[in-house]
Fold this sequence. Notes:
With 359 residues, chain A is mainly α. Chain A has 14 helices and two strands, in the order ααααββαααααααααα. In chain A, helix 1 packs across helix 3 (61-95), helix 3 (61-95) runs parallel beside helix 8 and helix 13 (302-326) packs across helix 14 (335-352). Chain A starts with a helix and ends in a 7-residue tail after the last helix.
Amino acid sequence: MASAANKKTRELYEKAAGRKRLWILLLFLAAMGIAFITLNAGASHLSVTKVVAALFGNGETKDIMVVQNIRLPRLCAGLAAGTGLALAGCIMQNNLRNPLASPSTLGISNAAAFGANVAIIVFHSGSVVNSGLGQVVINNPYIVTVMALCFALIAVALILGLSIIRKFSPESVILAGVAISSLFAAGTMIIQYFAADSTQVAAVIFWTFGDLGRASWQEIAIMSAVVAVSFLYFMVRRWDYNAIDGGEDVAKSLGVHTERVRLGGMFMAALIAAVTVSFLGIIGFIGLVAPQITKRLIGTDKRYLIPASALMGAIILLASDTLARTIISPQVLPVGAVTSFLGAPLFLYLLMRKGGVKG
Amino acid sequence: MILSVDGLSFSYPSHPVLHDVSFTIGQSDCIAVLGTNGTGKSTLLKCINRILKPKAGAVLIDGKSCDALSRLDIAKNIGYVSQYQSLPKITVFDSVLLGRKPYIKWDAGEKDLTIVNNALKELELLDYAMRYTDELSGGELQKVVIARAIAQEPKLFLLDEPTSSLDIKNQLDTISVIKTVARKRGIAVIVTMHDINLALRFANRFILMKNGRIFGVGGKEIITAKSIEEIYGVKATVYEIDGSMIMIPKNHEAEFSARKEV
Ligand SMILES: Nc1ncnc2c1ncn2[C@@H]1O[C@H](COP(=O)(O)OP(=O)(O)O)[C@@H](O)[C@H]1O
Ligand SMILES: [Mg+2]
């Protein structure tokens, strides 16, 4: 009798876990599907067979150029940035125990943008070439990235410092983030205001609109590496994050070095945000909304939430980018705006649907 | 002896709380910590398992200083149930599985799942295993947290007011479950409580605290009208009825001259 109940409980547990793994599989397939659609969407209308052929280096040179040099890097940048930003948001929300935490609400995006502004305007690391097209070229992407990263980390240090030393309540941490965010926004404004060269300001403003097509292969490789390493790190820490969800004291009593885990998590998350923002510009909202949507689909257990959020981020960003490029083609909308247009209604819907699926 | 606390002092940045607290606890001891609100009972428990770092003094587990133990080692030795519960919204099974955190390297293994299952069974939670924590009553939640501490397989439980939010039946049930588990596995217990009568039923030793200091340590004999008045500032009578002790606070106006059973 008792052993039957035991067995039943174990079976139920395995079943619930299986359901969550199935969700992850579905999200993975959806991400792959959207990736394929992304690859096929664009101003030059290519048939699916041509795209696939070009992917493997067959077919007309022009098609190969389009697919391998424009669409594929764009897709890879989208995958890296989408998963990365969602992961960053997911971890920040857990580490600060606040559903509003994300790279943008904590001021990290603005801080990174400020760093990029300093690099581009003060250190002249960027300029506009072919100004008719408004094509932005960052002459020295490493200075831009390093500056963006430095300022992103300064923002994180401020937030972590405030929340740990002063034992801020979660709301205060977010408020501090908003304050830090506007501080850097103001700094950016002043730098731009005093910029000697107006083309530099144009460069910076174009830079600020997130664009997946901007990154070089090298930048994509760096971004992917950072995201992959962070993902592994977050997965290693997934039990610690689950414990932190139970509160500071409980986590400590379960053997978690909460300060260390937080510091590591926030650092990695900030690194993702900084690298992404500095290579692609600001892509808001994904970090906030992708983990939240995913949480409502499969629950807060980090064993499943971390990979599922990453996939959700990729899905939203790729879908947004495809829409941005096709909806008024050949005009391209800023992808950051479209992520909000797409994510916000979905999120509102899930918020209003009471309880949500827990699976 | 499994734990000894020696000259423990602790201060929050704003003010000192614990002063020179010392006591020991043996293998199957169950110690109830009694004292008014704000006297430092919760703080004492948190200092014992290093949630808070004491300002001075030592905590020794099996003769080894907590300073020398890693957080994980402390977690394997001490299971903690905090006064306030904020469980993440996961299933009961997963909540109890968190108790295996100190042992889990990469993923939960067969052994971990079996231990969780047994802990659930012990607290009669098997039927709730797949429920989410926000679908539980206060008493059920309390049981989940205790099950998590059991899954930790500790040598010592630190229970901070485990019965305060429970009705009388759940109080008695929870207490008897803790007692059974502790006795069966030889786990020592330090529990804080406000209900002196419940403590008298439950514990074999008592720590009376006043203003962050130890006022008295000992067996049931230290629960007297005098000590209760000293600690709580309340006049009370302690009766011994059929070998067990019962404390009844005195009515300020009248003594119980017209006592009658109802
Ligand atoms: N985080 C904290 N920061 C500052 N003071 C605290 C904190 N937690 C508790 N205190 C103070 O420490 C004293 C002891 O608190 P506590 O250990 O919770 O008492 P008890 O559990 O006996 O009611 C109280 O005066 C309380 O106000
Ligand atoms: Mg207390």
